[in-house]
Design brief:
Blueprint: E1 5-12, H1 16-27, E2 33-36, H2 43-51, E3 58-63, H3 86-95, H4 97-118, E4 124-127, H5 138-148, E5 155-156, H6 163-169, H7 173-182, H8 186-192, E6 196-197, E7 201-202, H9 213-219, E8 228-232, H10 239-244, H11 250-260
Parallel strand pairs: 1-2, 1-8, 2-3, 3-4, 4-5, 5-6, 7-8
Helix pairs in contact: 1-11, 2-4, 3-4
Length: 277
């Protein structure tokens, strides 16, 4: 039986406004994890504030291959210095060995940036727009982690769940099933490399600001897995966010709902290590 769940805010450091929202929620004990985009210029200035939560939340790398600029040159994938859209990444990573080598090098750079700023490895790794599970990308991520860190010391996010659980929640069902399909085999590959993995995943949302996100947040806890992880995207909107990311209007809606959210007494907020993973 599940003994709690992880509530993880994606996109720390994408902009100052998103980061301030996440820091506020961490300070109020409303989140138990967040993933940082260390390729973004805000990362170094905000890392110390984030590091203050190392004892109360999982702090991870939100691997980025689709937003703004990479940390180093990627002449095949980002010839103009800007990372491409998700579909281009997915195709290029499958078809071009040179692109896969660039991705592996950029993954190392983003891990380096995390460690240099916080003085320690990440607790976990996931991906912006779930890039870490894409065929052609996942091997670079999983092999890179297995070579770099002791067995069992880092976990990776599996964004798949049982079809029955996704349908029972009734939120963005089609989208959640597509993501689960993309992640097929990811958990097995991670476990083979002695990486820890969540067991149960929710949080896929339609990003509709007219929806009641508080109600959706409650639905994300329906049929929880034994080590359940729920992703979320809170934030304060600033001009930079509107230039960078399509998810804008729903971020303050999510922030308000998470700030007011009280987890069920039988499913408290936890770090993943507290769930037996």
């Amino acid at each position: 039986m599940p003994t709690g769940f992880v509530l993880c805010a994606d996109d720390f450091a994408i902009t100052a406004g998103v980061s301030r929202s996440i820091l506020e929620l961490l300070g109020r004990g409303k989140l138990s994890a967040t993933g940082a985009m260390t390729s973004r210029p805000h990362w170094r200035g905000l890392a110390r504030e984030l590091g203050a939560f190392a004892e109360t939340a999982d702090l991870g790398l939100h691997f980025n291959l689709t937003c703004a600029a990479p940390l180093g040159a990627m002449p095949r994938l980002a010839p103009g210095g800007e990372l491409p859209a998700l579909g281009i990444v997915a195709r290029a990573a499958v078809l071009a060995p040179a692109v896969r080598r660039e991705i592996a090098a950029e993954f190392r750079r983003q891990l380096d940036a995390f460690e240099e700023a916080l003085g320690r490895p990440p607790d976990f790794v996931d991906g912006h727009q779930h890039v870490h599970v894409l065929p052609g990308v996942r091997r670079a991520v999983l092999d890179g982690l297995a070579r770099r860190y002791p067995a069992g010391s880092v976990y990776v996010r599996d964004p798949a769940d049982r079809v029955s659980a996704i349908r029972a929640r009734g939120v963005a069902v089609g989208k959640a099933l597509v993501i689960a399909g993309l992640a097929s085999g990811f958990r097995t590959a991670a476990l083979r490399r002695e990486l820890r993995v969540n067991r149960g995943f929710a949080g896929v949302a339609p990003f509709d600001p007219a929806r009641d996100f508080a109600a959706d947040l409650a639905r994300f806890l329906v049929c929880p897995g034994p080590a359940h992880l729920v992703m979320c995207h809170p934030g304060f909107v600033d001009d930079e966010l509107e230039r960078l990311d399509p998810v804008v209007a729903t971020r303050p809606v999510e922030h308000a709902a998470i700030a007011a959210f009280v987890p069920p007494s039988d499913l408290p907020l936890r770090r993943l290590s507290q769930l037996g993973v």
